[in-house]
Amino acid sequence: MLGTSSAGSETLKNLVLPAVGRFTIVDDAKVVARDFGNDFLVTRAHLGKNKAECLAEMLCEMNPDVKGDHMDISVQEFIKSHAAEMCKKVSLIIACDVNQT
User: Fold this and answer.
1) If you ran DSSP here, which 8-state letter would residue 17 be given?
2) Is 25 helix (H, G, I), strand (E, B) or coil?
3) Which of 18, 43, 52, 68 could be stapled to 60 by a disulfide with Cβ–Cβ 3.0 to 4.6 Å?
């Protein structure tokens, strides 16, 4: 998943529960207070932490048969430096709140 959003979290949750296999979340965003009302997977304990890491941790708790990972890198930097190799390895890319600047 590229970027972190409440819609992305919900989508990924719906893939994790029936055991999607493995996932990676890419984003360098930190959990902020407004996330508490928008994203059911983050808690106040996550405030200021990397959101991709927090989401991956919470999703893996939902289904221990799924392997989850995260990359603490901006989506734009990831696209510039890793997208070509990653596209060869994945079946699905979920892009949410991806800024085109």
Assistant:
1) T
2) strand
3) 68
Whether 68 contacts 60, CB under 8 Å: yes
Evaluate if residue 55 carries a pLDDT over 60: yes
Task: Evaluate the CA torsion angle 97, 44, 26, 80 in order and state its sign.
Answer: positive
**pTM score, whole prediction:** 0.90
Task: Say which amino acid occupies 13.
Answer: K
Residue 43 has a CB neighbour count (10 Å cut-off) of 13
pLDDT of residue 99: 65
N residues, the chain = 101
Beta bridge partner(s), residue 70: 25
How far is it, in rounded angstroms, from Cα 25 to Cα 9?
10
CA-CA distance, 79 to 38, in Å (whole number)? 26
- Domain 6-87: which CATH number of 3.40.50.2000, 3.50.50.80, 3.30.230.10, 3.90.320.10: 3.50.50.80
